[in-house]
Design brief:
Blueprint: H1 3-17, E1 39-41, H2 43-51, H3 55-66, E2 72-78, E3 81-86, H4 88-101, E4 115-119, H5 131-149, E5 153-160, H6 165-181, H7 196-209, H8 218-243, E6 249-252, H9 253-258, H10 261-271, E7 275-278, E8 281-284, E9 296-298, H11 306-319, E10 324-330, H12 334-346, E11 354-359, E12 362-366, E13 369-371, H13 383-390, H14 392-400, E14 408-411, H15 412-416, H16 423-443, H17 462-483, H18 487-507, H19 516-538
Parallel strand pairs: 4-5, 4-10, 5-6, 10-11, 12-14
Antiparallel strand pairs: 1-3, 2-3, 7-8, 8-9, 12-13
Length: 546
């Protein structure tokens, strides 16, 4: 039984013995100061009003009743709190349970096999992916994996906006580069794309097509749009391969139009009285529902806005049977997100169907200072180039090790270091050290055949018990990563675990210590298991040697 569950169950039994009805949720926390115990509960405060008894008196009653519990070496009432000091045997059972579960440790059936979609990256196919897209790719991939650990059937989806004004600008920008390669200089549109990546493509088209499209007419527009999207998607696939992200589904905006879904959803909003016409355009009545403005759904020229298409796209997701949908998006999309959620509510979709994971942007810090990324102006570091410089593991880890809502400064010099200063290597080295100990134990004939049945009673050192308590936290961290959209919590957890292990490794002899050796090797097996599981969720390798 997990430690917090053990304490909750013991409190529930004690309350029953006192004739008290326990609250629906018994609070159990991990105190920040060791003198307050391994775990603590403020349940007495919740019961005080009902019983009309001060919390300290209830806490004293509980502590007396729990004092003889075999899992606790001491139960202490302090100021209304009940503080629990765990018996080493209870901690040993936590380690044994983790070893018994193996690669299932940290998993649950919370999702019960329901379908959950995580949509992320979804960058318009107007250029290669940059380090800004890398952050979203890493966050989305980790969230999908964390939810999979909780028993959801996760689908990773990329929404491809292959229609609209931006694709026209891209096509015309590529046409200008194509004509430039033929010696016929043509201006790139002022709002077009100026990156050098289009110059190389323009040269390729000039060699393949010759002078086929001398003017920017409808034929050139159709051909360049088609060619631009195909070539940009090839670049995007190359970037995603570099970071190790695979999508299960690619949805094209053009398909939504061809199926008539955009028009169908718009007509339904009209039927529900959620749309009005003004200046030849059609607007969503958002201010009637408390939002700050009414957005346009259909422009005066009859074309749908991005918002209208996005609403239809989420209706499509609902019809495909997803129980929940998570969209990973930049924090600059907040207003649009509110509009989408409002429209879905008007259309009758459940309030808990769509969730947004918001992230701030990325800047690159190197010797030259901090650089801001701009795909349109061509000032960017391509995702695959960054991965080639620092490695996939470092690139992914750095992108999720800070809270998504916080601006991320990617420290290029730190990322390139292959020392323990680099948090990725710091965590990986803990895994490697344990693997090295196991190789030595095997050579010396000291490696247990079965860690689960090892006698763990020699594990009484405070550092050893602290490590087991950290192992016990792993399932809660996985759950928090998913529910709170917080991959950084897993990074912080792994770094904290490594910070406990490295000094222990330096101070304590593992091999050749008689009965203590198999117990300590079992502890290391639990640590290696959790380090490997955590790194796998992050999409980072867990090397056996470095």
């Amino acid at each position: 039984m997990r430690l917090e569950a053990l304490v909750r169950a013991s409190i529930q039994d004690a309350l029953a013995g006192l004739g008290l009805t326990p609250p629906a949720e018994i609070p159990v926390d991990r105190p920040s100061r060791p003198e307050h115990g391994d775990l603590a509960s403020r349940v007495a405060f919740l019961l005080s009003a009902e019983r009309r008894v001060p919390p300290p008196e209830i806490a004293q009653e509980l502590s007396r009743r729990l004092a003889s519990h075999p899992a606790f070496r001491e139960v202490r009432a302090e100021g209304g709190f009940v503080n629990f000091f765990l018996d080493p045997g209870a901690l040993h059972e936590v380690l044994r349970e983790a070893l018994r579960d193996g690669d299932r440790y940290g998993q649950s059936d919370e999702g019960r096999g329901r379908l959950l979609q995580v949509e992320f990256v979804s960058s318009n196919p107007t250029g290669p992916l940059t380090i800004g897209h890398l952050r979203q790719a890493a966050i989305g991939d980790v969230l999908a994996e964390a939810y999979a650990q909780l028993g959801w059937r996760c689908v990773r989806e990329y929404y491809l906006n292959d229609e609209g004004h931006q694709i026209d600008l891209l096509a015309q920008s590529l046409w200008a580069r194509y004509r430039e390669s033929l010696g016929d200089g043509q201006p790139i549109p002022e709002e077009g794309y100026h990156g050098d990546y289009l110059a190389a493509l323009g040269e390729e088209l000039a060699q393949a097509w010759g002078d086929r499209y001398p003017t920017w007419d409808e034929a050139a527009r159709a051909a360049l749009r088609r060619e631009a999207v195909v070539r940009m998607m090839a670049m995007i696939h190359e970037d995603l391969d570099a970071i190790g992200v695979r999508f299960d589904v690619w949805t094209r905006e053009g398909d939504l139009h061809r199926r008539g879904l955009v028009r169908e959803v718009f007509d339904r909003l009209c039927e529900l009285g959620a749309v009005y016409e003004k200046d030849g355009a059609h607007w969503l009545r958002s201010t009637d529902h408390g939002l700050s403005r009414d957005p346009v759904l259909i422009r005066s020229d009859g074309t749908p806005t991005y918002l209208m298409v996005d609403i239809a796209y989420h209706v499509d997701k609902f019809r495909r049977g997803f129980a929940q949908v998570i969209d990973v998006q930049g924090a600059d999309h907040v207003d649009e997100q509110r509009q989408v959620k409002l429209a879905l509510r008007i259309l009758g979709l459940p309030d808990d169907f769509l969730h947004y994971c918001l992230h701030q942007f990325v800047t690159l810090k190197g010797r030259e200072g901090v650089q801001r990324m701009s795909t349109r102006a061509g000032r960017f570091l391509q995702l695959k180039d960054l991965v080639a410089e620092v490695g996939r593991d470092v690139a992914r880890y750095f992108m999720v090790m800070r809270k998504p809502e916080s601006h991320l400064v990617f420290d290029y010099e730190l990322a390139r270091k292959t020392s323990m200063e680099n948090p990725v290597y710091y965590v990986q080295y803990a895994h490697t050290r344990i693997a090295s100990v196991f190789r030595e134990a095997e050579k010396g004939g000291e490696l247990p055949a079965d860690f689960v049945s090892v006698d763990l009673s020699p594990l009484v050192d405070p550092e050893e018990l602290a490590l087991i308590k950290e192992i016990d936290r792993f399932p809660d961290v996985v759950r928090a990563v998913a529910h709170d959209f917080a991959p950084h919590l897993l990074c912080a957890y792994l770094e904290a675990l490594a910070a406990l292990f490295h000094p222990y490794y330096a101070r304590v002899r593992i091999l050749g210590q008689g009965a203590a050796t198999p117990a300590r090797l079992a502890l290391l097996a639990g640590l290696k298991l959790v380090l490997g599981r955590g790194l796998a969720i992050l999409g980072v390798s867990a090397p056996e040697a470095m």
